[in-house]
Write a structure and sequence with these properties.
Blueprint lengths: L6 E2 L17 H10 L1 E5 L4 E3 L7 E15 L5 E7 L4 E2 L1 H6 L6 E14 H10 L1 H27 L2 H16 L13 H8 L3 H13 L3 E4 L2 E4 L2 H7 L5
Antiparallel strand pairs: 1-2, 2-7, 3-7, 4-5, 4-6, 4-7, 8-9
Helix pairs in contact: 3-4, 5-6, 5-8, 6-7
Length: 235
Amino acid sequence: MKNVPSVPYNEDVNLLQFDIFKPLNEDEAKELKELISCFRYKRGSTVYNEGSRINGTYIVIKGIVKIYKTGFDGKEQIIRFAKKGDLIGFRSVISNELACTTSEIIEEAILCYIPGEELTRLLKENPEFSMALMKLTCKELGESNKFLTDIAQKTVRERLAEVLLLLMDEFELDDDNTLQISLTREELANMVGTATESVIRLLSEFKADKLIELNGRKIKLLNIPKLIKIGNVYI
């Protein structure tokens, strides 16, 4: 795993722009702002490792972070991607457990670190913030349950179509219908839960069927209704 050092980021950050912190009053927001530490990370750098003790949580200000678990064979299973406004690492802080995932930067990012004791204080003193974090936890749990069901019941072809639609939903398309996230074939395979060779073959099939267009890591979606049908996705 790469170890790319982070660089302090000293520009002003408005935490109240993010939904998770909107329940905070002015005094709470001001105090939180004084306690956070912000850093700029390059692609390939690791924020925290699976099995490590993390004493705080992180809010993504800019960029994309992949969250993944490592299997016994060393293969990654990507759980999700975190982008601007997402909170990562908070469940380990609340449960006082070791990190159950690894977080790695895949697009240059700015993250702000929030000490665990400050997160705990806000949870105790601000019911609206507690409810917002509870809703976020339930949302992530629901997504994990859906992922487990898909792995068990869907074919690799169906899962790849669903992953492309998920990426479209999370990161949107540009004016040319191209996904606004650039992933390696291995990262795509780690999302789908299959071998890289299988994803390469299926992408070629999707291209031949005029469902997508490939340009390096960029993927353009040509026939979204057909992808929805293949992926058995309800939108």
